[in-house]
Design goal:
The complex is a heterodimer.
Chain A: E1 2-6, H1 10-22, E2 29-33, H2 36-46, E3 50-53, H3 62-71, E4 78-82, H4 87-96, E5 100-103, H5 108-115
Parallel strand pairs in A: 1-2, 1-3, 3-4, 4-5
Chain B: H1 11-26, E1 31-33, E2 49-57, E3 62-70, H2 72-83, H3 90-113, E4 119-121, E5 125-128, E6 145-151, E7 154-162, H4 177-182
Antiparallel strand pairs in B: 1-6, 2-3, 2-4, 2-5, 3-7, 6-7
Helix pairs in contact in B: 1-3, 2-3
The chains are: A alpha/beta, B alpha+beta.
């Protein structure tokens, strides 16, 4: 599988990849982007199987990234990994077509719960 | 939505929030410090690290600064664990402390502005040692809320600053997706 991880924090991108591994969902090709715009380009070039994206990012936010993808007819499974996990954001994410929202701080279990249906180990 | 700026009712939530964030990024238990109790002092030559964000509700102009301050030693440990390296450089420290502030800020927003559809969270601005600039808060602003915790023998501090000026911070773009879609 190819997985795009979009987050403006390099540390958080590393933690996301590490947590995937800890959740037993590792071993996949991971492509990293610093914002939604970069991630959008990666998706066009590499056709990933899953996208994990922060919400708040410079250049293009996560929700703008998701809405742009869906407007283009791209249905790649998309999950937010974000420090904001309010009900209002979860509703907005679901309405835009996200698989789910994993709120920071998170655990390997939260990754398994949301992603095990779309990521094979 | 207007945040009341009276934080006594949420002090326990803020203590828990700080502890949860520290535990998640460091993998260590954090002990909350009661109000007025001094924690262990930092080393004389320690250069603290700070991450600052703001939450702004455009509907009514509510502004709340969120500042996370840790010792330089803790910042080093944090970066070392986040990046899985023994020798994190200055950029690693800034990124790690910025992300610590980002997680805290997002959780503060969910706690205090949870039902607001108009509140926005800035991106974190992190600084080390001498580069730290005091947050700009007007004289008439309500008192800040401060919670602290001890983790790995050092103090970490979360401060909420009512009415903090937020113009100098970096904000995520507000652009409609159809505009982005139209771009090449």
């Amino acid at each position: 599988m190819k997985i795009v991880v979009a987050d403006d924090s390099r540390a958080m991108r590393m933690i996301v990849v590490r947590t995937l591994r800890q959740a037993g969902l590792g071993g996949h090709e991971v492509l990293e982007a610093e914002n939604g715009r970069e991630a959008l380009e990666l998706v066009g070039e590499h056709r990933p199987d899953l996208i994990l994206s922060d919400w708040n990012m410079p250049e293009m936010t996560g929700i703008q990234f998701l809405q742009t993808l869906r407007a283009r007819g791209d249905a790649t499974p998309f999950c937010f990994v974000t420090s904001e996990g309010s009900e209002e954001m979860r509703e907005q994410a679901a309405a835009a077509g996200a698989l789910g929202v994993i709120a920071k701080p998170f655990t390997a279990d939260s990754f398994s719960d949301v992603l095990s249906s779309v990521v094979t180990s | 939505m207007t945040v009341p700026y009276e934080f006594d009712e949420v002090r326990e939530d803020l203590d828990k929030l700080l502890g949860d964030v520290l535990r998640s990024v460091l993998g260590e238990e954090a002990e909350p410090l009661p109000e007025g109790v001094d924690g262990p002092p930092a080393a004389d030559d320690d250069r603290p690290a700070v991450s600052v964000l703001a939450i702004v509700d455009d509907a009514d102009g509510t502004r709340l600064g969120v500042r996370v301050r840790v010792t330089g030693r803790l910042a080093h440990l944090l970066a070392a664990r986040m990046f899985a390296t023994e020798q994190p450089d200055g950029e690693d420290l800034l990124d790690a402390v910025g992300e610590l502030g980002n997680i805290a800020g997002g959780n503060v927003k969910a706690l205090l502005f949870g039902s607001s559809g108009t509140a926005r969270l800035s991106l974190p601005s992190a600084a080390l040692g001498g580069a730290i600039v005091a947050a700009a808060v007007p004289d008439e602003a309500p008192a800040p809320a401060v919670v602290r915790a001890v983790v790995l023998g050092d103090v970490a501090e979360l401060t909420l600053l009512p009415q903090m000026a937020a113009d100098d911070l970096v904000w995520p773009p507000v652009v409609r997706p159809e505009v982005l879609e139209a771009q090449p």
